[in-house]
Amino acid sequence: MSNEEKITIKINDNGSIRVTGDVELIDGEGNPFQTGSTFSLCRCGQSNKKPFCDGTHKKIQFASAPRASQ
C-alpha cells in the first residue's frame, strides 16, 4: 500500500461499519478473513454472516447514529 492510499472506516447511521481500502481483517486467533477492497462489518450484532453485515439491521430497526466530537 502506498502512503497516498487512505483507508476509511465509516459508521453508517442505523447500519454497518463500512471499511474501504487495503485492510487485513483477522479473527481472534490471527486467521485472515477473505475480504475485498470494500466491505461492511455488522454493528447490530444480529447478522448471520458475522463479522460481516447481512442487512439484518434493517429488519430489526437497529438505531444508532453516533457523531464525532467537534
UniProtKB/TrEMBL annotation:
Matching InterPro entries: FeS-contain_CDGSH-typ, MitoNEET_CISD
GO molecular function: 2 iron, 2 sulfur cluster binding; metal ion binding
Sequence intervals crossing the membrane: none
Annotated Gene Ontology cellular component terms: cytoplasm
UniProt xrefs under Pfam families: zf-CDGSH
Segments forming domain Iron-binding zinc finger CDGSH type: 18-63
Keywords: 2Fe-2S, Iron, Iron-sulfur, Metal-binding
Top-rank taxon: Bacteria
Name by which UniProt lists this protein: CDGSH iron-sulfur domain-containing protein
Source organism per UniProt: Niallia endozanthoxylica
